[in-house]
Model the fold of this input.
Amino acid sequence: MKNKSSDIIEKKLADYLVRVDRKKCLSFGKCVGAVPELYILDEKQLCSFKKDVKKVNTKNLMESYYLCPVGAIYIYDKNGKQIIP
Ligand code: SF4
Done:
């Protein structure tokens, strides 16, 4: 049975909050290619976050949203306002 609590994961960075809906993730790994210092695929081959990441390149972070073919990535500013989608 799937663990509901791990379906949506989030990572707080210095300037952004990144959320990933793992129910949507189909393991394409495009996000990992765009921001390898932030994203990893876990043992189930689903998107997860690396530990101890504080800052990432903004352009690459936004690109990870556009590259994800299933729209599993959501990005917020540090005040919680949703930037994309
Ligand atoms: S790009 Fe999207 S579908 Fe692919 S691993 Fe990342 S979150 Fe999952």
Summary: The pocket of iron/sulfur cluster is lined by residues 20, 25-31, 47, 68, 70, 72-73 (CB under 6 Å). Strands lie at 8-12, 16-21, 39-41, 47-49, 73-77, 82-84. Residues 8-77 form a domain with the Alpha-Beta Plaits fold (CATH 3.30.70.20). The chain has one domain: 8-77.
